[in-house]
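User: My collaborator sent over this chain with a note saying "see what the structure looks like." That's all I know about it. Can you take a look?
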Amino acid sequence: MDKIAVVILNWNGVKLLEQFLPSVLQYSEEATIYVADNASTDSSVNFVRENYPSIKIIQNSGNHGFAKGYNDALQSVDAEIYALVNSDIEVTENWLKPIIETFDKEKETAIIQPKILDFKNKEYFEYAGAAGGFIDKYGFPFCRGRIFDTIEKDNGQYNDNCKLFWASGACFFIRKEVYHVLGGFDEAFFAHQEEIDLCWRAANEGHIIKYNSESVVYHVGGATLQQGNPKKTYLNFRNSLLMLVKNLPKKGLFFVIFFRMVLDGIAGIRFLTQGKFGHTFAILKAHFSFYCLSLKYLNKRKDFQIQQYYTVKSIVFLYYIKKLEVFKEIFNSNQNIKN
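Assistant: Without extra context I'll predict from the sequence alone. Here is the result:
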């Protein structure tokens, strides 16, 4: 069994592979590298085979998205640690060393995220993960270094190694044993928030999720599905509700979901006033899909859910009403966040 395997999920991303594989090859001597291909119709597989014979190729049977794509591919990967890396990630020298050391020293730590900076503006954090994630009572995710659309400059303010609630799927390290015991990603999610759901399930089982600032990567972000795409809105809103049904503590379950759906409705009206009709429709579609799947997801609930899953009651209120746009401002206003 390998110590660590870097597994890059790809779908029609030959240009991204051309751009970003060199850094992975250069700085990942400790790892066996895989490209897991979701039945690409471009030249991705041939490009890897012809130019990087040391990289192992896994060919999935179809474009199964992020969740099932990784679930299928990882059946063929034998390593103690999985490093799940987006194809639009540039890694840096010694990016794997602090991750491996943490896993070796901290046996209770199951999932780790590195510092994720913006490839296009390298002094700033990147939207999808930044310096590690948390959620509020109603399931809205936010990060150290990124609250909604406010992204912080990296001034070393998050140069630490702290506990998180969720780690970004853009660059996601997990112990193989934990991944498979938890059943991997929820395949119905297809993409978006499946990593938060997996981290929540891990936390419910007593595992620890960490951030390690000594490992740094740069992420393009939105290379496969742009932030303003209504399909992304649909997946985020639907998957967030499904995640709440699965993982919320029993007490207050239905109230939290009801209130979250009210907040979703307000978001839909806001999109409507901005002329973003596709996003309003995406939220309506997400709620309809949630209604259809809710009973199935109630049956997915486990016997135990952690009670203190959130760090702030409402990030929406703090950001839009109190105008707290930086994580440390929220930290100072709420003593539930622990580093």
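A starting point for your reply to your collaborator: The chain has a mean pLDDT of 95.
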